[in-house]
Design goal:
Elements lengths: L8 H7 L3 E5 L5 E4 L1 H7 L3 H4 L4 H4 L11 H15 L3 E2 L3 E2 L2 E2 L8 E2 L2 E10 L5 E10 L1 H91 L6 H29 L7 E5 H10 L2 H6 L3 E5 L5 E5 H18 L5 E8 L5 E8 L33 H11 L3 E6 L5 E8 L19 H8 L7 H9 L11 E5 L3 H11 L4 E5 L2 H11 L3 E5 L7 H9 L9 E5 L4 H10 L3 E4 L4 H55 L5 H28 L9 H16 L4 E5 L2 H4 L2 H22 L4 E7 L4 E8 L6 H6 L1 H13 L3 E6 L13 E8 L9
Parallel strand pairs: 10-12, 16-17, 16-18, 18-19, 19-20, 21-22
Antiparallel strand pairs: 1-2, 1-8, 3-7, 4-7, 5-6, 7-8, 9-11, 12-13, 13-15, 14-15, 22-23, 23-25, 24-25
Helix pairs in contact: 6-7, 7-11, 7-12, 8-10, 10-11, 13-14, 14-18, 15-16, 18-19, 18-24, 20-22, 22-24
Amino acid sequence: MTTGPQPDFRALFESAPGCYLVLDPDLVIVAVSDAYLRATMTRRAELAGRPVFEAFPDNPEDPATEGARNLQASLARVLREKKSDAMSVQKYDIQRPDEEGGGFEERFWSPYNVPVLAEDGSIAYVIHQVQDVTEFVRQRRQAEAEADAVLVAEARTEAEVVLRAREVALEGRLLKEANEELAVLYAQSQELDRMKTEFFSNVSHELRTPLTLILGPAERVQAELPDDDRRREDLEVVLRNARVLLGHVNDLLDSAKIESARVTLDYRQVDLAGLVRLVANNFETLAADRAVELEVRAGLPRPAEVDTGRLHQVLLNLIANALKFTPKGGTVRIEVTDGQARDTARIEVADNGPGVPADRRDEVFERFHQLDGGATRRLGGTGLGLHIARELVTLHGGVIGVDDAPEGGACFFVELPLHAPIGTPVGPDELVALESGSGVTAALLDGHWAPAASAGRAATGAVGTPGDEAPLVLVVEDNPDMNRFVCDALVGTFRVRAAFDGREGFDMARSLRPDLVVCDFMMPEMSGAELVRAVRAEPRIDTTPILILTARNDPSARIAVLREGANDYLLKPFFQTELWTRVDNLVRIKRSEEGLRALEMANERDRIARDLHDLVIQRVFGVGMRLNALLPSVSAEVADKLHDVVAELDNVINDIRTTIFDLQASESLADGLRQSVLRLAADAGERLGFQPHVRFHGPVDTVVDRGAGEQMLAVLRESLSNVIRHAQAHAVDVDVVATMGGDLALTVADDGIGLGPAEARRAGFGLTNMGVRAATLGGECEVRAVDVDGDGDGDGGGTVVEWRVPLGTASVQHR
C-alpha cells in the first residue's frame, strides 16, 4: 500500500474556519488560527510565546468584568480534571490596535476548552475554542429594549393612577407609623431621663458616705498634729481635694433633684445685703492671695423672703466663678441694688476678666457646658455650677443673666422678688453657717487653688539635688497638688524641675534640655498634645521622651497624642511607684539611645578614616612600584638603599591595612552569622600569619536576631584587632554559643603576652565599646588575663574576652 505526501497540519489548523487557540500546560500561547486572529484583531507574531492572560487582559475601564477570572477557573479545571469544559457566554472585551484608535471593544464569546493528552496521560496542550456571539447578544438586547418600551407605553397611564393611589396609602401608613414611633421614642426618652436622674442621685448618695468618712477622720488627725509637722500639709492636700470631690458630688445630686422636680424652697426672712456680705467674707483670703481686690457694695439693710441656703449656693458659685477668671491684680465687684421691677432686688457680681462673648451668653447656663472646654482650658469643673444657679433663681421667680461689666469683664446679675409667692409659709431669719473659707473656696475652684505654704512647697520641692549626673525630669502640671505629688515621687532619684502650664513647660524644656518631660494632657496656654508637637518641632530637644498624664480614659485621645510623638501615657489616678517605674524606663531608653548614637558617630568617623587610608595605600603602593622599576638602572649601592625604602613602604602599607581592619565597625549578616564570623577570622588571619580556631555551639544562624548579631561581630572585630596590635600571640580561639531562649556568648582567647596596664590603656576605647554594646542589649562583658599557674593573679599568659547578651525565644531567619 502506497501513501501519499503528508498534509501540512499547521496550514490546515491555521486555515480552519473556527476560532482556535492552543495553549501549553503553563497557559502560554503556542498556536492560533487565522479566524481567531481576525476575531480578536491581533497578529500571530504578537501572541506566540506569550501567556494568554498577558496577551488578553481584562478591560481596566470595566471594574465589574469577570471574563479573565472565569476563563482562568475553566482552564484550571481542564488541567486538574483532564476533561473538556464548556463555559457560558462570557463578556471579554478585546483591545483594538493603535491604528484603529486603541481602547477596548465590547465582545461576547461562547468558549469551549479541550485537553490534549500525551502518551503518558499528562496534558500536552489545551485547545481554547471560542465563538463570537457579540452580534446575537446586541440584537437580543435591542429586542428586549423595544419590547420594554411598548409595555411601558401601554401601562403608563394605568400605572400612574395605581401608583398615586398606592403612594397616598403608603404616606398615610408611614405617617401613622411615624407618630406611633415618636410616641414610643418619647416614652423611652422620658424613661431614660428618669433612669439617668435616678442614677446620678444614687451615685451621689453612695459617694457622699465614703467622702464623709475621709473628711472626718482626716480633719481630726490634722487637728491633733503639731503645727510644724509636715504631715499637716499632706493632710491638707487630702482634705482640699476631698472637698473638691464632695463639691462635684453635691452638684450632681442637686442637678438630679432639679431634673426630677424634687427641689422645694424653704423661704426665710433675711437681710439680703447681710447675706451677700457673709458669703463674700469667705473669699477674702483667696482674693488677698491672688492680689485681687474684692469690692463689696451692700451697705443698707434690704429685707427679703428667700431660701437662704439655696441663695447661698447661687452666690458662692457666682463669686467663685468671677475669681477663677480674674487675673492677678484684678477686681471683683459684688453689689446689691434695687431691681428694674417693683419689689425686686438686683445682685451683681462683676470682674475685669476675659468676659463672655455676646453670642455665647446663653450657653454658660447649660448643663455640663463650659466655654473653655478644650484641652487648653485654664480651670476644671463639671459645668454644673451656673446651670444649678439658673434653676434655683428660676424657682425663686427671678432672672439670672450675664452682660458686659463696666470693669471690662463679665457681669453676672440676679434679680429676685423681695417677697415669697402668696400663700407660701415664710420662716424667721436663720442664716445657715458656712464651712471654713479654705474648704469652700477649694471646692468651688476645683482644686486649682492651694494655700500659699502648700503652693510654695510644690514649687521649691520640685527641684531635687540627687547629684549633677542624675537625669533631669521636667514636670509640667497646672494643678499645684498634682504637680507636687509627681515631683515628690521622682525627687529622690532624679533632678526635678516644675512648670505650671504648657507654655512655661515648653520654654523650660528649650532652656534646660531635660532627659524626660512629664506633662498633663489638659493645661492652660498649651495643651499636652500641643506641647508634644512643639517639642518634636524643636531641633535641640526633638528626641526628648515625653510621658503624658491624663484623666481621659479615651482610646482615641490616647492614640492621637501617641501619634503626635508622645512616648507613653499614664492614666489618672496612678500610684507613685508606677509613675517612677515608667519615668525610669523612659530615661534609661534615652540614655541607651544616646550611647548608640555616639557609637554610630564613631563608626562614621572610622569609615571616613578608612577611606582616607585606602587612598594612602594606593599612592604608597604606586610609589613602591615606581622605585622597583628604577632598580635595574641604578648602581648596586643605590639599589640597596632603594630596597630599604621599598621595604619601609611595605611596612607602612601593612600598618595602614591593620588600621583599616580596626576601623571596619560592622559586618553584614546577609550570609548568616556563622559565615560572617568565619570571614572576619580569615581577615584577621592574614594579619596574624595564622588562622584563628573558630568553634560554634548551637543554632547560631536561627536564634540570633540581626541587632545582637551585628553587635557581636563588632565586638569580635575589636577583640581581634587588640590581638593583632598588642598580643604577639601564636594561637587564637574564638567560641560562639547561642541557645534559643538563652544567651548569645562570644569568647576570644589568645596565648599572647597578656593585657597589662599599658595594653589596657591602649585598648581602652575598644574595651569601653564592648561593654556599651553588651549593656545596650541587657548583657555584660568581661576582659581578663589568663591565669597560667592557677594562683588567681592573672600573670600574663594571654587574654580572654567574654561577651554575653540574652536572646529571645523566637527563631530568627537571617536574609
